[in-house]
Amino acid sequence: MYFNASSGDNLSDPKFYNCANYGASEGRVRIEAENITYTGRTYPAYTTSTPGPVFLSNVPSLRIASVAGSAVPAIPTGNADVVLPADVANPVTVNFETTSHQPQSFTRSCYFFK
User: Fold this and answer.
1) What's the Cα-to-Cα distance from 12 to each of 17, 54, 74, rounded to whole Å?
2) What's the pLDDT tens digit per position in 69-90?
């Protein structure tokens, strides 16, 4: 097996075309795995590493803050967290809160059917 990240032509293989005509430079070949057993050739020469941890900062989140004026717990259980009175009128206002995203809060009206 041979990996090629060249910017040049390989006229014998229609999958390759000359990226250099579009201002491209030589590519990079990096192999990441827990156990690297590849011993083949690459152009340019490859670099190796073990995978590192993936950490995403400022990940957006969305939560329901209240339903029909009744607050939703910060850590809901998913079981009767909000109980609405039987006579609540439609539409019901649902307030959402977001983090790491604009706007920080918004409101939508929803219809609930019994």
Assistant:
1) 10, 40, 62
2) 899 998 889 888 988 888 888 8
